[in-house]
Design brief:
alpha+beta; Rossmann fold; two-stranded parallel ribbon; 4 helices; about 15% strand; AMP-dep_synth/lig_dom; AMP-binding_CS; acetate-CoA ligase activity; ANL_N_sf; acetate--CoA ligase
Length: about 110
């Protein structure tokens, strides 16, 4: 893995996108029937995620941000993936359920 990484460029070329181009699809929970795929567009979603994280959570350069939302939920998508990338900060992502084997796992992560 490390050998492969050394041969890669330290950047990715930008891809021109339209503001309404699809960014991702996420399915609803299905609590009112069959789950439905919801398309989120590029500009509006990214702007909202970045600005709400920056100002509601008082984000600054060098911060490490953790979110209890599952990455399969819109909260996890927003504040574990897209907003931290837009704001240039580190994200704490954990595997599994945050309360297993007990709720003390939250404090172990901190």
């Amino acid at each position: 893995g490390e050998t492969l990484m050394r041969s890669e460029k330290p950047y990715c070329p930008l891809e021109d996108m339209d503001s309404e181009d699809p960014l991702f699809y996420l399915y609803t929970s299905g609590s009112t029937g069959t789950p439905k795929g919801v398309q989120h567009s590029t500009a509006g979603y990214l702007l909202y995620a970045a600005v709400t994280q920056k100002y509601l959570f008082n984000i600054h350069p060098g911060d490490i941000f953790g979110c209890a939302g599952d990455i399969g939920w819109i909260t996890g998508h927003s504040y574990l993936v897209y907003a931290p990338l837009c704001n240039g900060i580190t994200t704490l992502i954990f595997e599994g359920v945050p309360t297993y084997p007990d709720a003390g796992r939250y404090w172990e992560m901190v």
